[in-house]
Every structure is written in structure tokens, then in C-alpha cells.
Amino acid sequence: MKNPGPSVPLQQTLKQGLDLFQAGQLSAAESVFRQLLQALPGQPDALHFLGMIAHQSGDSAAAVELIGQAIRAKPSAPMYCNLGIALQAQGELDAAIENYRKALALNPAHAELHQYLADSLKAQGNLEAAVVSYTRALGLRPDLADAYIGLGNTLHHLNRLGEAEASYRKALALPDRGGSARADVLNEYAMVLFKLGRYDDAAREIRQALQLKPDSQLINQNYRATLARLIPHWHFSMLADHDRNAAFRQAIDKHCAGAGVVLEIGTGSGLLAMMAARAGAGRVVTCEAVPVIADNAARIIAANGYGERISVHPMRSTGLMVGRELPQRADVLLAEILSSEILAEGALDAMADARERLLRENARVIPAAVTICAALVSSTALQQLTSVHMIEGFDLSLFNEFAPYLITVPRGAAYDVVSETFHPYTLQMGERLSAPTAIDLKVRVSRSAPVHGIAQWMKVHLDEEICLENAPAKENGTDHWGIVFHPFAQPVEATAGQDIALRCEIDGTALKMRLA
Fold this sequence. Notes:
About 45% of the residues lie in helices and about 20% in strands. The protein has helices at about 10-20, 25-40, 45-55, 60-75, 75-90, 95-105, 110-125, 125-140, 145-155, 160-175, 180-195, 200-210, 215-230, 235-240, 240-255, 270-280, 290-305, 345-360, 380-385; strands at about 260-265, 285, 310-315, 330-335, 360-365, 370-380, 390, 395, 405-410, 415, 420-430, 440-445, 450-460, 465-470, 485-495, 500-505, 510-515.
């Protein structure tokens, strides 16, 4: 191009260079502006645009010099703004903030200027001031997605989680700017939900992020951390419990063949629901309280060819209704929702509710009953896991105020059974607990020893003939139900033949055993 002269107006040349710049043709745009400077040395607009080209080309130092020359010739709000951007890229946050404020003094209604200032304030660590600037930006332009994201991030750092959640939701509601960028926002949003304890919601959002950015190590790591809060590790030991699987298969084959509708509570992986369908049930309706597990179970069931006969509902059984989720009252209730301490998962109430609302009269309930089994034990190892005394020369016994009232016995922990087995309760599954819930009894010591507490386990009656029991003497590395230890506050030095008075009590979903 020829140097601009009287026949080539200045504004026409600037527009030509600007059009090339906006089209991404930086080299051609630079050529236009440099030729303009040859004709008009020090022309501020040409210097400004050359500075912007230098910044976009990765040379922020040159950008700072060129835009600085333009400002000295003819300052304007866009020049101060772009100088701030170049300085921010160099890490010169104080200078960037100063220039953003000069730009705002000339154009206080420019929303992006408030956002850029907020970005620098956040990077500087001045988070409260950043919140103010992001809020001003959004007051001027409520559709500014980057400002909502920046505000969400800042509020997240300030641990103002409820406000951060609202800001991320507004950002995500705006038009999508691209898969990778949306994935990053979803990831941040999910981590706020995680910190709020809303693990189901967090898992849902972060799964969307993974679909958009599957190779992100950070998002994968956060997803696994979220799932760890939702999905207890015992699911895997339960599925690896071959005796449990075989016993349930035997009971299911016996009672689900020919059943019109089988209702399962707590499907987990979908294993027992698929057993029921394979046994010949016409329809299996199952539910799972954790939505991400329910979704996974539905995919497992479909992959195994039972998707048309088994419906999975992401809800608690108390939310199911006949005529909606269930086509009719069920002929069989199937529920493996027993914990090692038996009552912690609310099995009794859930199954009783199902019997009252969702089952036919005389429907089969699997398991039919659970007998609580227990014995006195002597174990210094278990005592040390539930109480403290002298440690490194210090008396820590006051810390026993926080001692647990029960623990699951770690595999390999040594203990001796020093009494016959006693059975304080047999619980009929599908029936609500009736009084008395507290029982006083005496248990005879079989040999002299310090008695440190009570070992408790269970015998699960799947029906009148098929049983499972996780007794202490059972040598089975796949048994996923643990032995529960109820410690005494102080050991009892007992002699053979001595009777020890105990009190057993069911308190809501807690089973407690102690000295009377």
C-alpha cells in the first residue's frame, strides 16, 4: 500500500487496518499501521493498534511501550484499558489496576472495564474489592458471563459458597461459549456444591464437565473425590461376598420365579434386581437413593439385557407409589440394606413402609428376619481402639469423653470370645419395631479373663431355610458384614461362671449394648 497522503484520508486508513486486525490478519494490519506512522509519526491511534497487535502476538513489553506513547499523545479510555491488559499480562498488577481506574474515570459505564479491574484485584488477592467491581460490571451488563464466572471464583475463595453457587448458575444459564470453557465452569460449580455437602448435585454437574472435557486430570480427580463421598467402599466388598451372593440367588430363584411384580429397595449395582428378572419375575421395580448410583445401575441393567423388565427409580422407597412407579402391589419385596450394625441404614422402617403401602397381603419379604447375635469378648487390642490412657507419658484419659459407643472390628484384630452366644432380638423384616426396645439380661462368663466389651453380629434369615451368619468363628475373607464391638467404659475382671448384667437397647436406628 502507498503511504497515506491527502488522497487517502486518515480515517479510511485506520478503518482498513482495524478491519484486518478484527479479521485476525495481524501481520497485514501491522503493515498498514506502520506505514501510517511513516506518514504521520506519533499518530496515537496507529500506536495504540500496534500495541494491541504486539500484545496479541505475545510481546506485552512492546505493547506497554507503544500504548504508553499513544496515551502521552492523546489519552483515551480504550488506551488506558488496553495498557492495563498488557500490564496485567506482565504481572504488573498495581500498574494495571491504576490504568483500569483511569479508564473508568473517563468511561464509568463500561462494564468490561469493571470486570478487568476485578480480574486484577482478584489476582492481587484483594478479593472483597474484586467482588465490588464484578458486581458493578454485572449491574451494567447482566449478560456478562465472564464476570459471573470471576465473581463465582472470588466468592468461592472467600468461602461464600451460597453466593458462589448462584453466580455460577447464572453463568451457566447464559449462551454456551464452548465445551472446554463450560467444562471448567461446571467443575468449579460442582466443587462449590461438594463443599455445601450436596454430593448428588456435585456428581451430576461434574459428570457433565467430564463429557465435555474427558481428558482433564483435574475434573477426573474431582469426580472420583465426589463419588467417594457418595458411594461407600463396602459396595465392592459386598459384591465380592460369594456366600452372600449365592444365598440371595438361592432365595430369589425360589421365591421370584413366576412373581408378577418384585420390588427391590436399594439396588446398588442392580445385581439382585437382575437375579430376580433372571429367575422369572414378570416385572422388577427397584429404587436407589443416590442418583448417580441409580443411573449407573440402569446402564448396567440395560447392558445385561434386562432394561425392558427392570425399572430403576432414583429415589428412596418411601417416595414410590402404586400406580406410578409400580404397576400394582408387589408379590415379593427384596432388600439387602443391612449394615454391620443392622439398623443404621433404616432397614426396618423402609421395609415396614413398603409392606404397608406397596406389597400384596402375604407378600414374600427377603430377608424375612434378622437375629442379633452377641458374646462377651476379651481384647486389649479392641480396648486400645476405643479408649486412651497414658500415651508418651501423658494422661489422656479425659479424651475418653469422645470414645465411640461401637466400632466395626478391623480384620485381623485379635479378640477372645469368653461367653456363649446370646440373642437379644430377632427382628421381623417388614414389621415395625414393637416394645420393649430395651432388654436387661445376664450373660455367664465361660472362662476367667478381663471382659472388654461385647462382640455383635447377625444371622440373616432369607426365608425359613436359607440363612447367612457372619459369626466370629467364620473363616471367610469375602464376608463383607463386619463384627461390631461395643466397648465397656472399663474392663470387667471376670471369673469363669460369673454372670455379667447387660442392657441392650434399640434407639431409633442405633443398637446399643452396655453394662447394666
